[in-house]
Amino acid sequence: MKEFRKLDIIVNAADVFDGCNWEKEIRSNLVRTIHDMVRAYKIMNKRGTDRGGVILNISILYGIKPLSFGANMNFQKTGIRVVTLCPGITNTNFIKNAEKTTLTPEMAKQLET
After folding, report:
1. Which stretches within 8-88 are classed as H helix?
2. Whole-model pTM above 0.85?
3. Contacts (Cβ under 8 Å, ≥6 apart) of 52
């Protein structure tokens, strides 16, 4: 902010879910995302309605309606757009070896479908 004096885009990307501490996951993935959206909105909105900006949330499918739709309704007069990108599972070594490395066998089977 000191160098460029403006904020055009913010990207919120969630953590990997480990299933061990759900309260930590909620704080990290949901609460922090909402906090960052509000903070970015305050900075972007100071420039006036003609400048806008983009808040990009990288999320699972369930994050589309509550985060993007609600925020777009609230931010629509400011020119700030809220976009949610929901990438699918990509056939990587992480996914191929998920059963052996990070997930329970039941969780790994769910990823296969």
Report:
1. 22-26, 32-45, 70-75
2. no
3. 44, 78, 79, 80, 81
The model's pLDDT over 55-91, given as tens digits with 9 standing for 90+, comes to: 888 876 555 555 565 666 667 778 888 777 766 666 7
Contacts with 13 (C-beta within 8 Å, 6 or more apart), sequence order? 58
Which of 49, 48, 85 lies closest to 67 in space, CA to CA? Answer: 85
pLDDT value of position 46: 80
**Domain spans, the chain:** 9-88
The structure tokens listed for 30 are 């949901």
Please name the residues in contact with 78: beta carbons below 8 A apart, sequence gap of 6 or more: 41, 44, 45, 49, 52
Q: 68 is written with which tokens?
A: 């993007």
